[in-house]
Amino acid sequence: MRGRWWSLLLTAVIVFLLAYVGLTYLDRGNEPTISYTEFSRQVDAGNVDKIYSKGDAIQGELKNARDNPEGDGDYTRFKTQRPAFADDDLWRDLSSHEVTVTAQPVVRERGVVSNLLISLAPIVIIVAVWIFVARRLGGGRGGAGGMFGRKAPPKPVELRPGTQRTTFADVAGIDEVKGELDDVVDFLEHPDAYRRMGAKMPRGVLLAGSPGTGKTLLARAVAGEAGVPFFSASASEFIEMIVGVGASRVRELFAEARKVAPSIIFIDEIDTIGRVRGGGASVSGHDEREQTLNQILTEMDGFSGSEGVIVIAATNRADILDPALTRPGRFDRVVNVSPPDRGGREAILRIHTREIPLAEDVDLTQLARTTPGMTGADLANLANEAALLAVKRQQQQVTAADLSEALEKVQLGAERTLVMPEEDRRRTAYHESGHALLGMLQPGADPVRKITIVPRGRALGVTMSTPEVERYAHSEQYLRGRIIGALGGMAAEQVVYGVVTTGAENDLEQVTNIARAMVARWGMSERVGRLSALPSDAQQAYGLSAAPQTLDVIDAEMRRIVDECYEEACRKLRDHYKQLEALAEALLESETLEEADAYRIAGVTRLTKAADA
Ligand SMILES: Nc1ncnc2c1ncn2[C@@H]1O[C@H](COP(=O)(O)OP(=O)(O)OP(=O)(O)O)[C@@H](O)[C@H]1O
Ligand SMILES: [Zn+2]
């Protein structure tokens, strides 16, 4: 749309210029100018055929060509200017003394059109220059340079039938995430069905995950699956612009997307503008950031919900995002995109070697096993490097040797350690298995849903357990179970290696919180008694504070509970060492275990809901 504007303007300028030149030329004519004296001589001689006059300007034609006394050659067509004194005595005097009179117009006469053009010309030029400068400054980086090298506006990705488009088939290893986006696709495919039902549509989806995990790819695939136009912009592009342009670019982007709805707007690096607001002194550029963010939020709030424009944003810093972004009606759906596990890596490798002829000796399953910690982008890069090597060596196929050399190269060139050291993986596997096994063995504990040693964020591994039904009151036994489970990672390291590592910081934080609340808030310690020994904020407002002696007792009681739990955790893990080992080995092999597999491998019967209570 911007492109069309620009060319319209240019055409207009060119037409104006041509018209101007043409009219001035016509105005001037090409007949020689003769003096008024010569003209009246020809009139007297009866040689003037016809004249045209406008004001004092006279153009005309002679009956017979005549030698031009004031120029070279003969002339028949002429023009002249009548002097203001043509009717006065002065003229007669001058004529009788053979004075040649040549008059000049006071103001050069011009047509209405050319006058208009001339007064408009400077305005046109100023506007053109202004737009040009604004574009140069506001163009941002990247993008295909159009006329004058400006940034091309976001264009919907080509989705003509027959052209290759990204679909879910191009995305692997993150099946749960695909599942979460299925209904977005469905909505984009049949917006009318939803509209008829008066159903509220998702407006914004936030994809959160570390770099290279395929967030952009996913957004494209959603558009591809639904067959709708895809607009993509990077949030950092918005704030590089001069003030006010970021917000107006956002406005344009949304307007474009609405025009071709249903459609998808993808905003990468949303954290660059979506950081928590009001942090510290206002740095310049701050305002632009805020204006741009506000514009995005305003546009999203403005959706009637049936327009069919879905905004997908991506970030690798979901933790620093302004909560205003994730409010209902905005990016209220947050989808975590984590790096792939072994199976996922294998699937991704298959996708990225689809077009590459592989030699017999290539074993992608094995390759997936040796690349823990690598993301989709890393693996795509790996496959490409191997292909490049094969070409350089003039081979017909990519061999296992090419792949392992490419792996070395990719690892050397990477800023971070791509492949997790085996020792760390093993320790993490035991750590997580410790959490999980104790969680499974603890009567009444929340069931274990998933165990993984695929690092996400700062965590090397995660064991997830969620209650079957939301509970509002907790028994002391349940809370102790939680502490034992949380200490399970550390206990496993203690039991298996005899030492513990720093990986348990988060666990201890959790343990401390539970133990403190048990002792000081929930009256679960005899020595502290049934007091809220650590006053709440409201109580503090009334001047309540804990006595120093009480603090000592709280401390001692927390320690006692945690020590007892740790003892129990270690004892249980020793008693069930075989199961711990089985879980850890299974984790090392496949990196992720779902609920059913985890219970099966650990040989623990999943307690029923009734037993939970
Ligand atoms: N799950 C995956 N399946 C297949 N290919 C993937 C996957 N993840 C990443 N890739 C490959 O890596 C490339 C880069 O991924 P993409 O740009 O989507 O990652 P991203 O999460 O958006 O990264 P960033 O946060 O750096 O923008 C993709 O174009 C694709 O080739
Ligand atoms: Zn842990």
From TrEMBL:
Tell me where the signal peptide lies.
none
Q: What is its main location?
A: membrane
The broad enzyme category this protein falls into is hydrolase
Q: Which domain of life is it from?
A: Bacteria
Biological process according to GO: cell division; protein catabolic process; proteolysis
Tell me the GO molecular function terms: ATP binding; ATP hydrolysis activity; ATP-dependent peptidase activity; metalloendopeptidase activity; zinc ion binding
EC assignment: the record states 3.4.24.-
* Name this polypeptide is given: ATP-dependent zinc metalloprotease FtsH
Organism classification: Bacteria, Bacillati, Actinomycetota, Actinomycetes, Kitasatosporales
The gene designation is: ftsH
